[in-house]
Every structure is written in C-alpha cells, then in structure tokens.
Amino acid sequence: MQSDDKPTTGQPTNGQYKLSFPELFNQLSSVPPAPEPDGQHGAGRLAWLRAAWKKTWKEGGFLYERWEEVGQARHVSWYEIATWIKATLLFSGLSLIVLMLDAAGDIASAALKGLSDVPASGTVDGSGLWGTVDHPIRVFLANQAAHLTVAPAALYAFWQLTGLLGLIGGFFGNAGARIAWLLFGIGSLAMIWSATPAGGRAAATGLAALMWALASIFALRGLTLRPIVHNHPAPAPVFSPTLHLHATLPAPTPAGDDFGDEPDNLHPLQG
Predict the structure, then answer these.
(1) How many domains does the chain divide into?
(2) Has residue 169 got a pLDDT over 70?
(3) What pTM was computed for the model?
(4) Which of 11, 162, 192, 213 is most deeply packed, by most CB within 10 A?
C-alpha cells in the first residue's frame, strides 16, 4: 500500500516509481529545519539530518524505494532490474576483472623473474636423473645464446615457462597448449641429443623421452586417436494417411428452362 507522500512524478518501473535525485532533494528540502538550542551550535543541523534520514526511509521515500528495488531484483529477470542496480553490478564486475588482471600480471612478472634468476650455464651439476636431462638443455641454450642478443637465463626461463603452460593448459584440454607441449617435448629431445656426449647420448635422450611421456599422461589427458562416431537414430517416419474423394456434381438446371423431356402422356387440363 502506497502512502500519500509518494511523488506523483516519474515513470513506474517494476511496479515502483522511478524517483530521481531532484525529487530526493525536494523531499529533503520539505523537512523543516530544527531550531538550535542556546549554546549548542550544530545541534539543529543534526536534528534536521535525522529527520531527513527518517523521511527517506518512510514508505514512498527515496531510500525506501531503492531498497524495494533491491529486494525485487532477486525475483525478476535482468531486463526488469532497475538501471542503477545493473550499472553497479557491471562496474563492480569490471573492477574485479581489472584487479584480477593486475594481480595475474604481478604473479607472472614474479614467476618470470624467479625463473630468470636460475643459472643456465654448463657450470650446474648434471648428476641425478633430472640433471641428466636438464644439464644438456642448459649447455645447449648457453652455447646458442653466445650467438644471440639474449641472455642464457632468459632462454632457459622461456623454455621452462613453455613447458609449464603446456602441461597445465593441456591438462584442462586446451588444444593450443597441447600443441605447445608436443613442440616443447620434441625440442627438448633434440637439444638433449645435440648437447649430450656421444657415449651417453642415446641413454639421456631415451630417459628424457620416458619422462616426457609420463608427464604427457596429464598434459594429454582424455586425448584419443580413435575417431569419434556419433550415432544419431534416424527419426521415425511419420505416416499420415489421407483419403481423397472425387465427386462429379451435375450442373443445376436454370429456372424456367424446358428441354422437352416431360412425358408425352401429360397434358394440361382444358375446361
């Protein structure tokens, strides 16, 4: 039930009146200022603010109407939600996206900086299973970086980042990440074969291939070489019998037309 102090201007929106900010100022200006007691400067203004606050929360007030629109937003479609609510939601969503992108940029920058700090030279110990695979790659990149305008640490960091993104993206089924993972593995095997001494070249390359195959269990999860056949049952034929009747109707005889086909034994009465 609406009270008598509801403004009569504006267009109804979702069953409620669309109250503008000038009407809010009119509501506030309609509140009479409270007299200030002697010796208490500002007390009248506080009393006026309290009275104006209460008036806007009464039925038909500005804040009352906005609260009603928020309550109705849960039960109506997006097109029926008040415009100020949609604008607030869109602005909040865009702000959240900007914050997430900024945080993601900081994380990626820190990760690249951490990877770049890893030495990528032949001085790193190449013992152990991982060293057998990782050391030839470091040596190969260090030798190639001597002929390029890029630091060996940057090449090694890029190689690590490519493998990490290919592994994670391939796990979630991204086609581009799986292609990057395949190229990462082929390139790694080629670098290991090229930089490993001839005596242990085959063993190091085979060990790297096995490790890459085990990691591919996660990177290529769900990938199959069998063709996917979709068997869709054909729709059943629709049988709708129809019966067509053809009837020939004689043309009607015009009134007063005598074709002389009356019987001969019929004669008019004569008096």
Answers:
(1) 3
(2) yes
(3) 0.45
(4) 192
